[in-house]
Amino acid sequence: MNIQNQQERGKIWAAVFEQTSTQAGLAVPKPVAETIADALKAHSAMRRAGTTVITVSGGEMGWPNSDGRNEIGEQLDQNGQSGSQDPTFGNTVIPVYKFSSKMIRVPIELWQDGGANFAQFIENRIAARVGRASNKKLTVGTGNGEPMGIVTAASVGRIGWAGQTMTVTDDDLEDLVGSVDEAYRLSPGCCWMMNSDTLRAIAKLKDPAGSPLQLVERGADLVQRLKGFPVVLNPDMPAMAPGAKSIVFGDLSTYIVRDVLELDIRRLTDSALTLAGQIGFIGFARTGGAYTDVGGAVLAYQHPTA
Fold it and tell me: Which domains occur in the chain, in start order?
């Protein structure tokens, strides 16, 4: 961030600090809220891999879908009449749920001495808390009173052989890639998603002679790749365990993350905080997510139960 932007941010937060009101909360100015909303991606793998849409209200929203993998055109003779084939459309409803950063209490003296840099700390901390809370649900949520996570929604493309309750093989990975339709594999959004421990286990795989397979590579852009596809690390992906879906692969952009407006940041000014010599900040977000594809764009590797 350049000096001018730091100065502007300092002015914004100084104005917030000087506000007085009998209300319990005051809205932080929009430029700050938008900056924090952008920072959410740094703390949410699902936001980085999926597609984020913003709606102006939290009412019911449907996302249309259609599986056209088995549809095919036709060759016609001259003056021949064309046939017809109507696509079948579906609709995935994406409800939203409320997330909170929890209140952050700051001593007034620390706030006064911290200046613009301390304001940046508050922004990052709110973004991290909301981002992590929502990312967990977008990853493994059940869809019952919370978002339907990608792991829950994804069908199984490969099940490990008996005994692979804590492992994965090169053949498993190759079969998982092959289980996803080529059209999805050619999409810019096609990638792997797993946690760091799973990727580390894959990086240690060896051939029968004991030599490393060197499956994991880091390109010039510093992005880690597995079998040519980028890897998105997500700490909320399940660990390798009996019956767990520890890896997903495919076009993750088909997972839609829905936000209602921007992240709502509030400064709290109640009497209890004032008597303690503190000011409070809290962030709220209304977020939902759903896997909207019906053609197997994203499939999972699942460990056997035994």
Answer: 23-58+93-144+256-291 (3.30.2400.10), 157-252 (3.30.2320)
